[in-house]
Amino acid sequence: MTDTLPRIGLLGVMQPLYDDMIPGITEHQAQYARRIAESLAGVADCVTSDPVRGREDAERAMRAFEDADLDGVMVVMLTYGPSLRVTRVFRELRLPVCLANIQPDPAVTPEWDMADMTYNQGIHGAQDTANAMVRAGVPFDVITEEWPSDAFRERAGRWARAARAATAWKRLKVGVFGYAMNGMGDARFDETALMRALGPEVAVIAPGALHRTVSELPDTEVDALMRWEDERFEIDQRLSKEERADHARMQLGIERLLTEHDCRAYSTHFDAIGEDGRFARLPMAAASNLMAKGYGFAGEGDVLAAAMVHAGHQLAGDGHFTEMYAMDYPTDSLLMSHMGEGNWRVARDDEPVRLIKRPLAIGNLDDPPTLLFRIRPGRATLASLVALGGERFRMVVAEGEVLDSQRLPALEMPYGQFRPDSGIRDCMDGWLRNGGTHHMVMNLGSVAADWKVFCELTGIEFVPV
């Protein structure tokens, strides 16, 4: 899902006041806008508008951006541009916004004439425009940098990825197979409030629909998936063909239903599957494979966590569903795992991912084929979405290190040990005080700054711990 770059519109704002004073200024500054777009190649695909010189220009450009299905809009002042030209546009805009407070030349020099002064006077247009967005209650990011620099590219890329994640959430549907786990309070929320505030919609899918879909799948599709797994994973020889075919049918059936319901994230609960009475085993390996294909996932009917894994894919690539299993004080780390679901794209490079025969009493069904791996050592980030009531949401985020840690032979599910930068004592104190949930997304790399921008664009409270 993150193989392509975010697609953003670059809106260059100026005014006709300077045309007589500096003939050709509009084309001169239009060329500057095109150079900015070219400088962002590699972090975003940019669509550049004609210079906006009035309200009609602004409205026309924004309609074109929205019709082009872009992820966000970056506003650049090509000269000073009065904010009332764009005030109404921002009030009605449906895309995330970034105000790039930049200018063509990085330094004021004695050689500047009035043309140079005019070309580089965007800062007070940025102030006027930012004031208008604040008054309108429009969330936006701001980047003040030298535009040809690596720092500008890095910050612009971070905003573009956050904009993609925020925009994707506005049209996200999360499929829930059956129902959510009884008694699991930190996953409870007001569905209408989530949709109003952030966008994700819940689609309940009956287990019976999954059973019918699984039964209708052709053997050729099942065989093709099993051959692909033979090439990709180390296969436990204890697994029978029947067990593997049953798992493959579950995966293919889930994906077919997600496609039919236009869902890019989902959750299954073991009781909803086990109590149905028509399934032989839980779809553990299916969840791992579908996460690796870019679907958001969470266990136990947890819509918030599934939406977070989806956002993690869009924001930083390869979101991994997990939870904190236990604390390890000697290494100042947390054992991260879950019942058997995990995105194998975060696995160590020096060990094969194994598809194993794995006994599991939960659900009271037959052994579910499970993908087993250890998480790749290196920098990593955890993020949890907290429903605070009404349309208030909080994100609790921790950065740290996945350790090159011990093997745990009895743990037949994806795992790793995460050492927070703040240490487990301070991290867990902060996590618990802020209501951090027990399901979360992990991304490899230090991406707390990315989540912060995402929160700024969506109105979520951001709390690092």
Automatic annotation (TrEMBL):
Q: Which domain of life is it from?
A: Bacteria
Mind telling me which residue stretches traverse the membrane in this protein?
A: none
CC per GO annotation:
cytosol
Q: Where is the L-arabinose isomerase N-terminal domain?
A: 15-169
The record's SUPFAM superfamilies line, in alphabetical order, gives: FucI/AraA C-terminal domain-like, FucI/AraA N-terminal and middle domains
- Limits of the L-arabinose isomerase C-terminal domain: 319-461
Annotated L-arabinose isomerase central domain residues: 177-315
* Protein known as: L-arabinose isomerase
Any Pfam family = AraA_central
Keyword 4Fe-4S part of the UniProt annotation: no
List the keywords (alphabetical): Arabinose catabolism, Carbohydrate metabolism, Isomerase, Manganese, Metal-binding
- One of the protein's GO biological processes: L-arabinose catabolic process to D-xylulose 5-phosphate
* Record EC number: 5.3.1.4
